[in-house]
Design a protein that fits this description.
This protein has 3 helices and 7 strands, in the order H-E-E-E-E-H-E-E-E-H. It has 171 residues and is an alpha+beta fold. It has one domain: Mago nashi protein (2-Layer Sandwich), CATH 3.30.1560.
Length: 171
Amino acid sequence: MKRLSGGLIVVVLAFWLVASPACTPPEPPASVPGDLEIYYSWGACHVEWGRYELTINSNGEANFIKSLGPPSPPIGEAEFREQSKFNLSDEELLGIYREIIKNNFFGLSESYRDPEIMDGDCSSLRVKAEGKEHEVFVANREIAPFDRITAKITAILDGKVANWEALGEQD
């Protein structure tokens, strides 16, 4: 009898965990909040090796910057910097926001770093929405929820900015 009741407790706990609201994915939002702001920066950890920045507001207005070189280059050393402005459709903007919510962006830690790697890739994503603000920094790590959100963002660049990944004067 003790064995049966112990098994029953395990089954009830398992059901409770699966059926609890904390474990169910959030409903996808039906609209974009009016205060939505997204800032995404990514590229080499050393800015002189190239960086990308993208800002998007709740109206779908986007500003994309790619740069190569130090932020304040010495005299005689030109920095490459290119800027593109474009608009996202309502569907594209809602798709990004849904990805943010689906992947629990506001529940992610603020920083993920691999201390064994000093150079490499660094990304930062800051989102303001519904009165909340959260920023996540990732260096030399793969964080699946973060990567799904940023993949959604960069996929939209393919149709908006020609040759956006190329850095340097030759593109």
